Amino acid sequence: MRTRLALTATLIGTHAAMAGTDTWFIPLTESAPVTDPSSAAELTSPWVTPAGISQKNIVSLREVEDQVLSYGQSIGRAANLGTGASMFDMIAYDPTGSYLFIPHESQWGAGVTRYDIYNNFAELIFQGDGQGENGDFSNDFGAFDPCRWTPNNTVIAGEEWSGTGRIVEILNPLAPAGEIESRVLESIANVSHEGINFSKKVDDTIYFVDENNSGSIYKFVMSAPGDYTKGQTFVLSVDGFTGIASENWNSATNAPAARTGEATWVALTDEDGVPLPGISDPFVDDFEDLEARAGRTAADDAGGTPYGRPEDMAVSKLKNGHEVIYFTATSEKTVYSVEMLGGKGRKNRNGNKAIVRTFISDDSPKNLGFDATTASLDSPDNLAIDALGNIYVIEDAPNSSSTGGDIWFVRDTDNDGVGESLDHFMSIRVDGCEATGMIWNPVVPTEFSVCVQHPDSTDLANVPDGLGDAVWMFNVTHIEDEKFVKQLNKAKAPFGE
C-alpha cells in the first residue's frame, strides 16, 4: 500500500492555489463517438484523452457484485430501476487518498459506499430502508448526488431530485460498517442538493445551490465554527435583478433581467436559524409533497436570483485574494463565478456583498491558439479543481445517442474569474452514460478519478453481466508538458473539492 503522506489536519487547512496555468495538453478537436454497451472500449478505455494520460478501472458495480458471496463486498442496487439502480455520482476522497466515498443517486434506497482503493474492497456504509419505492421517505433517502468529506472529518451526502432535499452527515465514515452513525442536518435548507462545499477562507461557512430552473445560490454561516447544526442561512440576490424570483431563469420576465453584477447575501433566518418575518421556513421535510423544496420557497420570498439548474459548486480564490465560488448553470450552458467582497462583522467577513460574473459559456472561445473543436459546451454539470487551482467542467450527459459528453479545461491565466478559453480536455464514449464526480487525489496531485454513471450496461435486463456504473482513475505523469507535472507535484491539493 502506498505510504500515506499527509495528515488530516494539514490537508483540511490547505487552501486551493490560485487558478491560472496555461493549457497543459493538446485539446481534442471533436467529441467521441458512442460505442455499444459492454464494448471493448467501455471495458478498457471509455475516455478519449490527450496523449500521455493513463486510465484504469478501479471499481465497477459488476465487479463488486461478483464478489458479494465470496468476499462480503456490497455496494447497493435499488430494485426495479434498470440503469438507475445504483447511479455512482459525485465522489469524495478521505484526506489520505486511500478511500473513496461513492454516493448513489438512485430514486429510493439511496446510500453511500466506502471503497478502499488499495485493498480493493467496497462496502455499503449507509442506506435508506427502500420504502421510498412505496412513497414513504420517513426512513428512506433518494438521489444522493453530492458527497463531501468535511473539515470535521465527517462525510455529507445530499438529496437532489428524490426524497425531501435533506443533507445527511455520516459522523464516523472510517468506522466499521456496522458502527456507522449518521444524522440529518436540519440546519441546512431543503433544496435539490448537488453543489455543496466549504469556505476555504473562513471556518464557519458552507455554500450550496438548488438544482432547479428557478434555482438560487445559498450560504450557511455557523453560529460557532465547526458546528453544522446551528446558524444563519442567506440567499444570493443580484442587486440589478428586476425579474420574479419564483419564475424560471428564462421566463419572459426573467430572460432580460440582469443576473450578473453586484449582489447581496440576503438573510433568510436569524443567527439561530429562525425564519425571518415574511420568509417561509426553509427546513421543512414535506413527506406528503415530494416535489416541494422549502428552501426554494424561502429564497423566492427573499428575492433570491434564479439561475438555470445550478448543479455543482467549487470554491477557490482569485488573484486579488478574494474568495470565489464557481457554479454550473446546466440549462444555460454557462458557469458563473461569484467573488466575495467582504463586509463588517464576523457574520459578514466572508462577504455580505459579492460580484457575479460569467466565468465561461458555450459562447466563449474554444481551444484558443490550438486547432478548433467541433464540440459545444452541452449541459455543464460538475466542476473539479486540480492542485494548481485550474477549473474543469464536466458535462451532464452525452451530446446525443451517437456522440459522447465532454470534459473541458477553463483557461483563466489572469485569474480574474472570467475564463479566456474553454479547451476540450476529454470525451466519453460509453453508451447511455454521463461522466460525473471528477475529483483530484489530495495526496497524489497527478491523479484524478471520474465516475461513469447510468451506462446502459447497468441495466442487467438489457445487458446481462454488464460492467455498470464504475469509477476510473487517471494519471497525467507522462504527458509531454513536464513543467505542468512538476508544478502539480510541488503544489498542495485543494482538498475537499
Structural features:
single chain, 497 residues, mainly beta, Neuraminidase, nine-stranded antiparallel beta sheet, five-stranded antiparallel beta sheet, 6 helices
Query: What is the name of the CATH superfamily?
Result: TolB, C-terminal domain
Estimated share of beta-strand residues: 25-35%
Largest sheet: 9 strands, antiparallel
Q: Radius of gyration over alpha carbons?
A: 21 Å
Mean pLDDT: 93
Helical content (DSSP H or I, runs of 4+): under 10%
Count of folded domains: 1
Low-confidence stretches: 1-16
- State the shape: globular
The CATH topology comes to Neuraminidase
Number of strands: 26
CATH class: Mainly Beta
**Structural class assignment:** mainly beta
Please report the distance between the alpha carbons of the first and last residues.
24 Å
In CATH terms, what is the architecture? 6 Propeller
